[in-house]
Amino acid sequence: MTIEETFAKIEETIEKLEQDDIALEDAFVAYSEGMKLLKDCNDQIDKVEKKVLKLASDGNLTEMD
Fold it and tell me: What average pLDDT values come out for the chain (65 residues) when binned by 10 residues?
């Protein structure tokens, strides 16, 4: 899943959890799924951050530390 797709799934999970009539067991399942999605999203963002390039003063692209 892309980061955008993961964010969309997180939004769906939040909407599910905000329902007044959600059963406790269903809420727990949705919460667990949401936490997994957040971890996956965080991992994806970390990978992207490691690939971010900055323009060095000499004009060459170098990977950020």
Answer: 92 95 95 96 86 60 61
**Percent helix / strand / coil, the chain, rounded to 5:** 65, 10, 25
Backbone angles phi, psi at 55, to 5 degrees: -85, 115
Token digits for 48? Answer: 């992207």
Record the pTM.
Answer: 0.71
* Contact assessment for residue 63 and residue 53, using Cβ atoms and an 8 Å cutoff: yes
Query: Rg (Cα) of the chain, in Å, rounded?
Result: 18
Give the DSSP H or E segment for 55: strand 53-55
Among 15, 42, 20, 8, which Cα is nearest to 30's?
15
Q: How far is residue 19's CA from residue 12's CA, in Å, rounded to a whole number?
A: 11
